[in-house]
Specification:
Helix 3 (about 40-55) packs parallel to helix 5. The protein has a domain at about 5-90: Leucine-rich Repeat Variant. The protein has helices spanning about 5-15, 25-35, 40-55, 65-70, 80-90. The protein is built from five helices and no strands. The chain is globular, with a radius of gyration of 21 Å.
Length: about 170
């Protein structure tokens, strides 16, 4: 996975696909790692091999793998997105396109799944929900980050760094 040439990294993933993911579960980590490659052909091969592994053994579809494949749905390459979609469908998930052609909830304003804003003419905003009494409010559950090994697609505010330690991400 650290080879200089994308062709060799893609071939390595292809060869790992010959092994059974139930007997060798660590190959799924290599496939998830391959989804983060800089070359789109390697990412597509990784998603393809995940799909092949899951089709042969559904037990290989872990939350980490699903999370990484979900992130791959936002890839800039169409082939990677197609392979990630197929792999998620092999895991038993239904991947729904976000267009309004398939809108069945009768939203009527052409914006499926979105909350209308006051800036849109002729659309009223829904009334806010009534506030709950403070003594009856349950504690909010702690949110956890997904445990997949993929870079965040969101831009975060830069951290303050102290000298060279911040250069290498050693500040925590």
């Amino acid at each position: 996975m650290t080879d200089c040439y994308a062709k060799n990294r893609r071939n390595a993933l292809d060869k790992l696909g010959n092994y059974d993911c139930c007997c060798y579960p660590e190959i799924m980590n290599a496939f998830v790692y391959g989804l983060n490659d800089t070359d789109e052909r390697v990412r597509a091969e990784a998603a393809d091999e995940i799909g092949d592994a899951v089709r042969s053994n559904r037990c290989c579809c872990s939350p980490t793998t699903v999370s990484a494949l979900t992130c791959a749905l936002a890839d800039c390459d169409r082939g990677v997105r197609r392979q990630a979609t197929e792999a998620l469908e092999a895991c038993g998930y239904e991947v729904v396109d976000g267009n309004c052609d398939s809108c069945t909830d009768g939203c009527g304003n052409g914006a499926c799944g979105t909350v209308p804003t006051a800036a849109e003419p002729g659309v009223s905003t829904p009334a806010p929900a009534p506030a709950a009494a403070p003594e009856a409010a349950p504690a909010a559950p702690a949110t956890t980050e997904p445990q997949a090994f993929f870079p965040s697609r969101l831009h975060k505010a830069p951290r303050k760094s102290n000298g060279l330690a911040g250069l290498f991400g050693l500040n925590r």
